[in-house]
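Narrative of accomplishments. A recurring question from our advisory board has been how the design workflow behaves on a single, concrete structure rather than in aggregate. To address it, we present the structure tokens for one chain from the evaluation set, followed by the sequence designed for it. No filtering or post-editing was applied between the two.
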């Protein structure tokens, strides 16, 4: 070992290089979906980027391990990290979404080489009880990179430019390449003949060399659960608890934070006599906590269960990697297979979870199912670990397999029951407009409902792309791009929407004004200095917008002006989806997006109104053929101190003051269309009940509103539906 350098130096290089590369890739992975949304590339593009990355890792991980066993670890690590330096540079030559997909796939190859070979080196150099500790520290660093990568990505992407993210990835990969090149010696082969320490051999209870299959099953279940947690935990939090992105992000990070801290502090200090039992127990704890997350009624319980998931990782990860290292001499092959199975979990878990979520429109059900899957897949490992001294491994595997099948069968019984009277209703879900949308459809058959729902999804995606000001190729994005110039020709739907928006500006005396985009197109505008918004007051006036119906051209006469149809577009998209559903055989239904609805058909629908300050509903109303939309100061906000008192600054600005609206904290509007209800919800929140009632009587006789005032008292306008608490 002296010829190859000290063991500690090599392990330090491996951990440092792995952390650096994972940090850069973590930043990229966080920013990719944001970039996809900003460019309106759609869910398929975003899904393809992630699936392609992990598919590449799935294919390359086993091959990388075998190469390291045969040719040595250093060449694989150096060339993989150098490719990670060069690949991001392709983005500057070919800044196209299709090329970005290819770059992400190739980066998956790079990651698929580095991760398994790094673990194989640790396994080859490890010995005795220190092996679990070393694997634990390695896992702690990977969790730290997983936590810090999104933070770095958020900072780098703050101005919505992808270039800083790619430069950061080049730099982190360069650091990894330097560490691998200078500190990992040539000739370090990961195929080793290990004389196993007697205590470790006894502790593994026959796993070494004979239980890799069971271990890989358990690892696959664990990584599928991790992937589902990453994909659906923010959705579950936003739906059940709060919509503040910062709060969602903090709670989402709890499992990784606990795992990072626990692995860093306690790795190797709490090792049971039986490593197989410990690994399966930790995985079972994580799976059980994930199962109960699906029905957590309180946020504190949700946080506690998230911490339980992290504790399960602390218990299971180091010893499961130790067991992998003890399962054979070819460390590269072993860890290549382990990383391949892990990547398969990351590919298949979200795909299956997405299918279940779309069918049930219930993220909690997804958590319950994958909690059971994770628990079931670690049972064979537990059974084989417990039985070798009593029965043969085949008996243990048989018992574990039967228990696994029984538990998976139980999962089939967890399907949400169809409520009485709703047997002919079909539910669907998806993501759009920065939120989740849900379709509840009454149709002659499931085939009719499936077809109509798919067409509605297509329309929702197309309208989102066209209306989103962040999409430079959409109608609104093109208008803003040419502000102060010749204007832009827009789609027929966008032209009609802008006509309706300008009419709303006229009828509300400028309270509703889509040219507020001069301020709101800036990220986190409501958290910035109020002087910034005040400085743009002269750019906000809906009466300045020039529209040419003959050429369908829209022009903003002043440079710096911008249109933001966020206060009306969601309702328009809902109405567009309803139109498609009606035309494709759906007789009744609800289209809902982020708490806004349109209820159509002969059914009388009951919808809830959320409380603006508490985790509960304020009450219920019943509607038919109506749009129901809400607005409030609880969607996007920050809290600061003003004159010694806390003040909530939120995303809805009162143009009269250029500050966040204060006359009410929540409002619900019922109108003849979702588009009208959406625009009026913003207007009524700013206007408050006194001025709001006057505007409704004068210009919107078919609409009604409910206001929640700052003291949480409630006022309603005439004709608002009967309100049941």
């Amino acid at each position: 070992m002296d010829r190859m350098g000290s063991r500690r130096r090599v392990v330090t290089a491996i951990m440092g290089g792995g952390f650096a590369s994972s940090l850069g890739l973590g930043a990229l992975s966080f920013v990719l979906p944001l970039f996809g949304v900003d460019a309106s590339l759609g869910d398929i593009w975003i899904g393809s980027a992630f699936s392609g990355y992990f598919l590449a890792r799935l294919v390359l991980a086993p091959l990388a391990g075998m190469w390291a066993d045969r040719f040595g670890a250093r060449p694989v690590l150096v060339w993989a990290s150098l490719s990670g330096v060069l690949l991001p540079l392709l983005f500057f030559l070919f800044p196209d979404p299709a090329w970005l997909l290819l770059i992400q796939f190739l980066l998956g190859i790079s990651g698929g080489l580095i991760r398994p070979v790094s673990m194989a080196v640790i396994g080859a150099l490890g010995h005795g009880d220190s092996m679990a500790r070393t694997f634990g520290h390695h896992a702690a660093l990977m969790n730290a990179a997983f936590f810090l990568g999104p933070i770095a990505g958020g900072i780098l992407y703050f101005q919505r430019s992808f270039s800083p993210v790619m430069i950061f990835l080049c730099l982190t990969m360069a650091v990894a390449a330097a560490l691998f090149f200078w500190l990992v010696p040539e000739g370090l082969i990961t195929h080793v003949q290990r004389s196993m320490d007697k205590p470790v051999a006894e502790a593994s209870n026959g796993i070494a060399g004979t239980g890799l299959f069971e271990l890989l099953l358990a690892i696959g279940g664990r990584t599928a659960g991790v992937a589902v947690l990453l994909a659906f935990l923010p959705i579950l939090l936003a739906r059940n608890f709060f919509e503040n992105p910062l709060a969602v992000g903090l709670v989402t990070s709890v499992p990784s934070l606990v795992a990072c801290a626990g692995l860093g502090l306690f790795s190797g200090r709490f090792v049971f006599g039986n490593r197989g039992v410990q690994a399966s127990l930790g995985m079972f704890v994580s799976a059980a906590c994930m199962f109960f997350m699906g029905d957590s009624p309180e946020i504190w319980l949700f946080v506690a269960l998230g911490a339980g998931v992290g504790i399960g990782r602390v218990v299971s990860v180091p010893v499961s990697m130790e067991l992998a290292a003890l399962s054979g001499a070819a460390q590269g092959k072993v860890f290549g297979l382990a990383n391949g199975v892990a990547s398969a979990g990351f590919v298949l878990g979200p795909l299956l979870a997405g299918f279940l979520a779309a069918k049930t429109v219930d993220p909690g059900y997804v958590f319950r199912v994958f909690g059971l899957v994770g628990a079931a897949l670690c049972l064979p490992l537990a059974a084989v670990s417990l039985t070798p001294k009593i029965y043969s491994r085949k008996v243990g595997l048989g018992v574990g397999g039967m228990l696994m099948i029984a538990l998976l069968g139980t999962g089939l019984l967890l399907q949400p029951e169809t409520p009485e009277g709703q047997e002919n209703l079909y539910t669907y879900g998806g993501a759009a407009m920065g939120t989740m949308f849900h379709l509840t459809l009454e149709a002659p058959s499931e085939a009719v409902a499936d077809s109509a729902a798919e067409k509605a999804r297509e329309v929702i995606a197309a309208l989102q792309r066209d209306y989103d000001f962040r999409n430079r190729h959409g109608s609104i994005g093109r208008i803003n791009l040419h502000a102060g110039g010749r204007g832009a020709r827009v789609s027929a739907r966008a032209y009609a929407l802008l006509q309706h928006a300008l009419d709303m500006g006229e009828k509300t005396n400028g309270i509703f004004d889509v040219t507020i985009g001069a301020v709101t197109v800036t990220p986190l505008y409501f958290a910035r200095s109020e002087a910034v918004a005040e400085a743009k007051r002269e750019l906000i006036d809906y009466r300045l917008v020039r529209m040419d119906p003959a050429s369908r051209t829209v022009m903003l006469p002043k440079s710096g002006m911008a249109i933001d149809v966020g206060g009306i577009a969601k309702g328009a998209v809902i109405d567009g989806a309803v139109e498609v559903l009606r035309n494709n055989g759906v007789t009744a239904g609800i289209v809902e997006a982020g708490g806004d609805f349109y209820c159509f058909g002969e059914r009388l629908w009951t919808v809830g109104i959320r409380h603006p300050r508490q985790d509960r509903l304020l009450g219920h109303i019943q509607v038919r053929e109506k749009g129901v939309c809400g607005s409030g100061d609880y969607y996007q906000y920050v809290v600061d101190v003003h004159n010694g008192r806390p003040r909530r600054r939120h995303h809805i600005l009162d143009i009269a003051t250029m500050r966040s609206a204060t006359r009410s904290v929540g409002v619900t509007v019922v109108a003849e269309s979702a588009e009208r209800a959406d625009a009026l919800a913003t207007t009524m929140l700013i206007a408050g009940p006194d001025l709001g009632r006057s505007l409704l009587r004068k210009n919107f006789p078919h609409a009604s509103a409910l206001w929640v005032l700052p003291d949480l008292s409630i006022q309603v306008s005439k004709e608002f539906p009967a309100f049941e608490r």
